[in-house]
Amino acid sequence: MGLPEQLSRARELCAAARYSEAAGAVQEPLPSLVAEFGEHHEHVLAARLLLARALGELGEHGLAVELARQAAAEVDARLDDGHPLRTEGRYVLGHALRLAEEGAQAEPRLRQAAEAGHPDAMVSLGVLLHRAGSPAEAEEWWRRAAGTGNSGAMFTLGALHDRRGEAGEAELWWRRAAEAGHVEAMTSLGVRYAGAGAAEEARAWWYRAAEAGHGMAMTNLGLLLARSGDATEALYWLGRAAGTGDPFAMDHLALLHYRTGDAAEAETWWRQAAEAGHARAAANLGSLLQETGRGDEARGWLRRAAEDGDPDAMTNLGLLLHGEGEREEAESWLRRAAETGHGEAAVNLGVLLERTERPRDAEAWYRRAAEAGDPNSMTNLGLLLHGEGEREEAESWLRRAAEAGHPGAQAHLERLTE
């Protein structure tokens, strides 16, 4: 592939928000291109600007600004005033500065590029203005960019209307952007259709975006397929999403492996997501380790997730500690989980309190969870109240638990009413 084709490919990847691939498509061959064409060849300068743009989107703000500043200065020094790379240089530097939160430096460069007709500069300037409290001017620039066929501007206008609660206008702009190939717009349309119960429409848009390499679309598609019972396709798409390094996708991929009987693969992906800092995955990994008799390691992962605020992890850590005789710390974690509204934590906290002769405290937690609809708490509350002589209320709670499907509530109710 020649240099012009490589640059064209990198631009396509940037347009598809596949910035890591775009950076790789430019960065890897750049030294040999410099050796072949020289530091100041316009194609080499264009490649450096593309690399700066991709790095900025990837969060490498300092490096992106430095690279963009150098390339833009070279372009201004060596190319004629009317050369398109001069406008591109102003846009890339301005955009990199905006991403680096250097708005005062970014605005004049973006404005100059936008006024020269650069659609991406119009979009970026609009974002800067909107955040600076000038929404009317921001929208004007976005509409100008959309009028040139810029799909990013169409997507941004869709998001603007969505925030305003104007669902019809949002869908209109997102559809226009999606039909122009904008993958985030495809993904947003999928979310809108899924929320409206139109699963097939959602699936179609997420599939298009996933095929184009959009990680969130892959995850959403995988979850939709899993809910519809197509585990094989779901594993494929969640696997692709997890392969992009997304811990959320890894967690759901692991859960699907677990549910389909592959605990070893589940552990692999939960461990990878947990090591990346995903609290839900850490909680799931801890639970799996606990199930498989590895309590010491389970405790570490559950504690990590619990300290990150995961109620399931707090509950499971509390139960693990209680089983190991550490009742005081167990009670503390169960109480923290129960205070978030976690039903299982509330009923287990009630059991612990009841066993340590604090029936009034136990009753309060059983009641709180029972009133939130937890059948186990309804049953325990009914039994506790019966023991205290509150037969009528006890029977009422046991009846509610039985109606909610609790397997033992009906038997308890029958024994108490004999």
Strand and helix layout:
Elements lengths: L2 H13 L3 H9 L2 H8 L4 H16 L3 H18 L5 H16 L3 H13 L3 H13 L3 H13 L3 H13 L3 H13 L3 H13 L3 H13 L3 H13 L3 H12 L4 H13 L3 H13 L3 H13 L3 H13 L3 H13 L3 H13 L3 H13 L3 H13 L3 H13 L3 H13 L5 H8 L2
Task: Give a description of the structure.
The protein has 418 residues and is mostly helical. The protein is built from 26 helices and no strands. The model has no long low-confidence stretch (mean pLDDT 92).
Task: Give the structure's gist in a few sentences.
The chain has 26 helices and no strands. With 418 residues, it is an all-alpha fold.
Question: How does the overall form come out from the CA principal axes?
Answer: elongated
Query: SSE string, helix = H, strand = E?
Result: HHHHHHHHHHHHHHHHHHHHHHHHHH
Give average pLDDT, whole number.
Answer: 92
Radius of gyration, taken over Cα atoms and rounded to an integer in Å: 29 Å
User: What's the main sheet like?
Assistant: none
Beta-strand content: under 5%
Number of helices: 26
Please estimate the helix content.
Answer: over 70%
Spans where pLDDT lies below 50 across 5 or more residues:
none
Based on secondary structure, the structural category is mainly alpha
Note the gap between the termini.
86 Å
Number of strands: 0
